[in-house]
Amino acid sequence: MMILKSSLPNIFAMPILIANGLFLLGKSTSVAQSLKFEIFSAFVPAPSTTRGQNIHIYSDPKTGRIAYPNGKNIIIRDLENPSKTFVYSGHTYQTTVAAFSPSGFYVASGDLMISVPTNYTTIDVNGNVRIWDTVGEDHILKSTFRPLSGPIRDLQWDSDNQRILAVGEGKERFGHVFTFDSGNSVGVIDGHSKVINGCSIRHKRPFRAATCSDDFTVVFFQGTPYKFIKTIRDHSAFVNDVKFSPDGSYFVSVGSDYKIFLYDGATGDLISQISDSKDDHKGTIYAVSWSPDSNHIMTSSADKSVKIWNVQSKTLERTIKISKNASNGPLDMQLGNVWTKNGLVSLSLSGDLNVLDLNSDSPISVYKLYSFSAL
């Protein structure tokens, strides 16, 4: 949303939707006047958040832009230049996640299942996955699919930019892998008994995939086509996020048991728990992201902190306290994060985006965004 300053007197600001974003425009008392406006600040809608539910945030590997859900829209945001923000409004229902393809040319975005009343009963409308381009100004829809009979919780592309792994809730299955253009199935995602909270694909051959669930497990797959290898039962509570390292050597899982486990990226074998007995997280860990060099991970927790861990030494390098203001209550719980080419970002329950630095114990800047929907 941009605030524009009018060159005419008797102008007041009002929000209206124009093209691909929200703007504050001045309104003249005389419709016959010719208006001129000058942009002097810009605002962007905050991510939609729900207490107790992690939010997956992904970045464009080429530009560092981030994507997140807001109401029925997907926000593509340049943190360094908010005027370059784009609002994708192609979804009809509440959005949940958006992921850039490795090439950066496409985004896959998901939404919720809803119940539509009819004359005699209600009909469940499955969660949608929409694939659309990020290059052209029109952001043309490439394809749309309904891979699950429930909400989409997470999406991942493979390194070939050809296949998408979608996970979430469902009746007959909680995950599905399909080609992005035709929707053809390229494997079976099974082994879970409850909602899948997160997923990741190894961007190195041979392909592997991992999913994590409310059933306290991580399931490991080989591909393509993707098929079950084994169930991993190291966590003792909900497993909220799982991520392969950029170089494919490892993957890591985090959960509501406050624990972090590191695995071999090719075999799925447990390497170790990553822990610091003096300063582990004291709350649910909702999100994990890898550094581009695969040497560090960032974890975000309900204990209102973000921790940076050295994967090689399995040690804690820094704790970043998001807020020291106790009056904020749960609003400073950390529900999501992303390690972009331009830096580290963690998401608060309030919708604030906290920009972090490896050399600082507190956020270096906070985007206190607006929690309205972009319509």
TrEMBL record:
Alphabetical keyword list: Repeat, WD repeat
Cytoplasm keyword on record: no
SMART domains in the cross-refs: WD40
A cellular component annotation (GO) from this entry: cortical actin cytoskeleton
Record-linked SUPFAM superfamilies: WD40 repeat-like
Gene3D superfamilies on file: YVTN repeat-like/Quinoprotein amine dehydrogenase
Sequence ranges of the WD repeats: 232-273, 278-319
Gene Ontology biological process terms, A to Z: actin filament depolymerization
InterPro entries xref list: WD40/YVTN_repeat-like_dom_sf, WD40_repeat_CS, WD40_repeat_dom_sf, WD40_rpt
Molecular function GO labels: actin filament binding
Any Pfam family matching the protein: WD40
Name of this protein: WD repeat-containing protein 1
Lineage of producing organism: Eukaryota, Fungi, Fungi incertae sedis, Zoopagomycota, Kickxellomycotina
